[in-house]
Amino acid sequence: MSDLLTTEEYKSIAAGLNLPTQAFIDGSFRPAMSGKTFDTINPATGEVLAKVAACGAKDVDFAVGKARDAFEDGRWSRLHPGERKAVLIRLAKLLKRNARELAVMESLDSGKTIFDCETVDVPETIHCLVWHAELIDKIYDQVSPASDDHIAMIVREPVGVVGLVLPWNFPLLMLAWKIGPALASGCSVIVKPAEETSLTALRVAELAMEAGVPAGVFNVVTGTGPEVGEPLGRHGDVDMISFTGSTETGRRFLRYASESNLKEVTLEMGGKNPAVVLDDAENLDRVAAHVVNGAFWNMGENCSASSRLIVQKGIKDELQKRILAHVREWPMGDPLDPVNRVGALVSKAHFDKVCTYLGKGSNVLMGGKAKDGFVEPTVLDITDRDAVQVREEIFGPVLSVLTVESVEEAIELANDTEYGLAASIFTSNLKRAIRGARAIRAGTVTVNSFGEGDNSTPFGGFKQSGFGGRDNGIQAHDQYTRIKTIWIDLSDDEDEAVD
Ligand SMILES: NC(=O)C1=CN([C@@H]2O[C@H](COP(=O)(O)OP(=O)(O)OC[C@H]3O[C@@H](n4cnc5c(N)ncnc54)[C@H](O)[C@@H]3O)[C@@H](O)[C@H]2O)C=CC1
Ligand code: BAL
What does UniProt give as the signal peptide span (predicted)? Predict the structure, then answer.
């Protein structure tokens, strides 16, 4: 906190920013071929921040061609992994040097608090790039068991030209989760940022050139889902898509792939994540702090947000009291004021959507008010297990509290969702913790805490939350590499029986 600036200082940085507005293709900024632009808006004020290139299918095709040329001539894909590592570490250093500018740009474009941008989004973006860069010259290929007269090598190759389709909730961090392993593996990338938040991806692409990533390897094509995302998903020369966003749009990418070149597809999608608190949980104050963080961090605009609190009856009142006390420690307001923990929702459209869930058919324990892009952290006591707030991903600061009698009922309710991204379970009983963690069908389960893990641990969902590979961890590199088997014949010519 001591390193943070004052609101006035952040506003002065914001006023001096040089916002990137054009697509970044083949090493330089370019307008959309159509000349069209769209407004990117500061959701905290409603002001237009910049006019960004509204690209289309022709821009996508051009970018894919440049990415393919770069991939095939090996200017990046065939470098020694240690050389790619050195460039990516240089990029991480440049991000660090420009951290404050990136944090302010991210906050302005997304409504996220400057506190989070400064303390989480930007530092974790840098750490993620360093982690994958450091890893890449330590992954070994394999030699399989074979007879004396053969060698069978199992080697990884970069998958080729990849499309990275990003959401708006963590514009920098999701960019890093995908470009980290993709670039380290040697792929050429076409990044398609969410249209709400294009700015920081463009700035990172510019810094990547400065760090030494060759032209054509790191491209950013800005525009809407139908105009840029779909042509990318359908392009015959794109080898793979890695997508993060809604389950509905994820499904579309499977369709695009099946109707075009059967490109590989990895999908990281929605969640309706349970925080299960059993009646033997210790330190309810600490549990409450985790539940509040899980539900309201990043305004609940988080695919792994704990949006369903499932609590055993015996401790419900006490836990609820402590939760409400912790929520009061989350001030809401101007994202550029570093005391605030709750900023603006990303867009007017999203704000309107989240407002439809406030209070409807439920007992509002706290919050429930919304104005001009800001939604108060809201806690709802809900008895109807089919209420929309219990079933649907809200992606806003709304926590539904559901009360259960038994451990079995808690686990059954935790699994009563089409999603399976993340979950947490709070208990002091080791067996219940481990059995519960095994029984909950989710890609990440945390015990006695809320968290998504680390660069080193794979992240992704079960059921309709995930498809294909994983982000993060060594496993993320499986998305961006293909396995090839190479057999080498060592037999003597006279042993050959081929006649
Ligand atoms: N899992 C996650 O991290 C995220 C989940 N969501 C969920 O999705 C809901 C809607 O948010 P959206 O921004 O509309 O998410 P979305 O899934 O539509 O957008 C994600 C990305 O897909 C692109 N896209 C959208 N429509 C497309 C299409 N027809 N073809 C190809 N690409 C397309 C977007 O431009 C963006 O880059 C949110 O309320 C939230 O529930 C949204 C963002 C992130
Ligand atoms: N929680 C990080 C991944 C996401 O929300 O998309």
Answer: none
Report residue 148 as tokens: 């004396």
CB-based contact 394:405 (threshold 8 Å): no
- Catalytic: 392? no
**Pairing verdict, β 370-371 and 374-375:** antiparallel
ipTM: 0.95
pLDDT band at 497 (very low <50, low <70, confident <90, very high): low
What are the residue boundaries of the structural domains of the chain, listed by start?
A: 7-269+465-484, 274-447
Return the best residue to mutate from 249, 297, 350, 375 for the ligand 1 pocket (most ligand atoms within 8 A of CB): 249
E-assigned strands of 286-427?
Answer: 306-312, 363-366, 370-371, 374-375, 378-381, 398-404, 419-420, 422-426
Instruction: Please name the residue ranges forming H helices in 212-271.
Output: 230-234, 247-259
- The CATH homologous superfamily to which domain 274-447 belongs is Aldehyde Dehydrogenase; Chain A, domain 2 (3.40.309.10)
Q: Which two tokens stand for residue 44?
A: 């905290």
User: What is the Cα–Cα distance from 416 to 87, expressed in whole angstroms?
Assistant: 46
Q: For 297-450, where are the alpha helices, taking DSSP H only?
A: 313-327, 348-355, 388-391, 407-414, 430-439
Over residues 105-129, the mean pLDDT reads 98
Distance 146 CA to ligand 2 centre (A): 43
How far are the Cα atoms of 162, 235, 276, 320 from residue 316, in angstroms, in the given order?
48, 52, 11, 6
Q: Which residue's CA is the nearest one to ligand 2's atom 3?
A: 303
Nearest residue CA, atom 42 of ligand 1? 245
Spacing, Cα 244 to ligand 1 middle (Å) = 7
| Predicted model pTM | 0.97
List pLDDT tens digits, range 230-271.
999 999 999 999 999 999 999 999 999 999 999 999 999 999
**pLDDT, tens digit, 9 for 90 and up, residues 328-348:** 999 999 999 999 999 999 999
> What is the distance in A from the centroid of ligand 2 to the CA of 176?
12
CB of 242 within 6 A of ligand 1: the answer is no
Pick the catalytic residue: 195, 196, 206, 268? Answer: 268
Segment 412-429 mean pLDDT: 98
**Integer angstrom CA distances of residue 488 from 146, 149, 150:** 10, 8, 6
Q: Which ligand is nearest to the CA of 166?
A: 1
